[in-house]
Specification:
Radius of gyration: 18 Å
Number of helices: 6
Number of strands: 8
Shape: globular
Helix content: 10-25%
Largest sheet: 8 strands, antiparallel, barrel
Length: about 250
């Protein structure tokens, strides 16, 4: 079973709705590549046995997953990073950096894409981040043609009342969940931005379990946007920045 033309139309619409687009030639080149990759995806095998976590893409590498763990899920997360700016005099905001106060994201199943084309997988965060939050149905429809699972939305990610990262994968019909603690953080690879106001890519992370079931380690990689503005100048007390990333779950 292969991807059909309606999915290509959806991808076109997603790119057309992008809030930040590269030059026309780059858009055309990206779409051509995605269309070509989608045309070769088959649903016959969604094994993650040969999926390779892209730890060498950053200047400083995150630690490897624990050797006794197995890769269970690869998802694309689409959501927001939240920051706060203190209520201080406007002049002080020019030198004050927004403080991270949490995040929230919907996690989409990307395991079948990963099993077939790692290159295509790594392009999905950029597509997801450029898709307005109100159009998340596009993401679900896009991935619906690339998975054997009936659970296109695997779960959700947010911060709990204690301020800890929480991953809930029960929407996929499993009992997996995890309250996480950060093991390591590294800067995302340098990317060429298309506008002077584009946000930075949020850091790549390695997380371990503080509490939970089924999941013991999570990696956030291939991030697209979501980084904090450089200062609080001209911003509200609460700052919301769209982002997308790959989340790799080990258990």
């Amino acid at each position: 079973m292969h991807i059909f033309s309606p999915l290509l139309l959806i991808l076109t619409m997603m790119l057309a709705e992008a809030t930040v687009l590269p030059g026309p030639l780059q858009v055309a080149n990206t779409f051509s590549h995605i269309a070509n990759e989608l045309g070769h995806i088959s649903l016959g095998n969604c094994s993650l046995a040969h999926a390779c976590l892209p730890l060498k893409d950053t200047k400083v590498a995150l630690p490897d997953p624990s050797s006794h763990l197995t890769l269970k899920y690869i998802t694309v997360g689409r959501g927001i990073q939240n920051y706060s700016c203190p209520s201080i005099h406007a002049s002080s905001r020019n030198t004050t950096t927004p403080k991270a106060i949490g995040a929230a994201a919907t996690l989409f199943d990307a395991s079948c894409v990963a099993s077939t084309s790692m290159n295509l997988l790594h392009e999905l965060p950029a597509i997801a981040a450029r898709t307005p939050l109100g159009s998340l149905a596009f993401m679900a429809e896009m991935l619906s043609s690339t998975t054997n699972s009936s659970y296109l939305i695997v779960g959700e990610h947010y911060f709990d009342a204690a301020g800890d990262p929480f991953f809930n994968l029960k929407l996929s019909g499993h009992d997996d969940w995890m309250v996480a603690a950060k093991i390591a953080s590294v800067s995302a690879p340098t990317r060429v931005y298309t506008t002077k106001t584009a946000s930075k890519d949020v850091a790549w992370l390695s997380l371990k379990r503080k509490d939970g079931q089924g999941i013991k380690e999570v990696y956030r990689v291939m991030t697209f946007e979501g980084g904090a503005p450089s200062t609080c100048a001209g911003l509200n007390d609460t700052v919301i920045v769209d982002y997308a990333a790959e989340y790799w779950f080990y258990g």
